[in-house]
Structures are given as structure tokens and as C-alpha cells.
């Protein structure tokens, strides 16, 4: 097993170090963040840093890189206070990845990648029509992370759009039915294979497996 200490990590070429460190967190969600500025110019950007914060209120966070160069997504969110998060599926993962190119502010990634914007009432930011699970957010807080000058952007979910047959009776969303993909490192995309759902763990009890409908599987002798 290789052992990289801090001194060796610091001496790595920047691209090697970025690839190595980005791989450590394993599989991450692949999402497109849709925004629009005050003049109506749309923007679409790939993010793998979206994280759940809480369900009541429904809060989601994402990490923005240092604002040392123009960050169209961040600028638009600050200007309008609105954005969307759109899960990436197998059918358009290559187009989604292309949004990470450095397009100019006047260029819309929707047009450059042949993805389709769509809208709902009372929310100005665009959704990705091709996405099968997407949600609208209002900006609630931007938290500076002083260690590396990144920003943690926190939004509250106001609307959720999801394929009907992927929402189970207990509220669980079966993302495998949506052919959702994940990301590892900076540039590797993956499909998934579920092992199972499993019951909430309690001390001194064996957690049982749960069917997709929310029912418990009976435990077999010796299981």
C-alpha cells in the first residue's frame, strides 16, 4: 500500500495532486446547476459537491471554488437569489460534462451543449429538461471557508420535479430507476448497482433489509 505524507503531497505537481485528492471522497453526485442573470442570460455548470444539509427546512449546500476569476454560477445566484439543481442521467452525461468548459459569460451552456432549458412559474432559474430529478432553490446563506477561500452556498428547496414512478410510497426516491450517474475524481462517470435498502440501525439489533416499497424483508435462519 502506498503511503503519501503531507510533505510528498505538497510536492506533487498541481494537476496530479488535484486528481489524487479529488478521488479520495469516492463516488459523488453529478448535478447541473442552472442559473440566470438579471439580463436573462442563462448558465449551466457541473457540480459534484452537492450535499444534503437538512429536511426541515429542506436545505442543500454546494461548494464554490475561489472567486479569483469570473464565476458565472456564483454571480448569478448572488444577483437573483435563485437556482436549480438537476441530476445527471446516462442519457446526457457527456453533454453535462461539457458544461465544465470555460465558456464566456455571454454564451449559454444550454445552447453550447444542446441541453434544453425549462421553467416553472414563480422561479426564474432554468431547469434542464432532460433531467429526470431536479429541484428549485432560493439562496439562504453563503458561508466563506477561509482555509482555501472557497464558499459554501446554502439554498432552500422550494419545488421538486421527479419522474412519478421513481417516488416510493415512503418517500424514498429510487435514483436507479432514473439512470442517475455518479462521479469519481474529476472526470470519471459511473452507473450504480444497489445492494439493498436497510433498516435504521439500533444497538444490539440486526438491521433488516427493506424492499423498495418500504416493507421489511423477513430474516432467514442464520442471517
UniProtKB/TrEMBL annotation:
InterPro entries: Flavin_Rdtase-like_dom, Split_barrel_FMN-bd. SUPFAM superfamilies: FMN-binding split barrel (SSF50475). Keywords: Flavoprotein, FMN. Signal peptide: none annotated. Gene3D superfamilies: Electron Transport, Fmn-binding Protein, Chain A. Its cofactor is FMN. One of its GO terms (molecular function) is oxidoreductase activity, acting on the CH-NH group of donors, NAD or NADP as acceptor. Residues 29-166 form the Flavin reductase like domain. The keyword Flavoprotein applies. Pfam families: Flavin_Reduct (PF01613). Belongs to the flavoredoxin family. This is Flavin reductase like domain-containing protein.
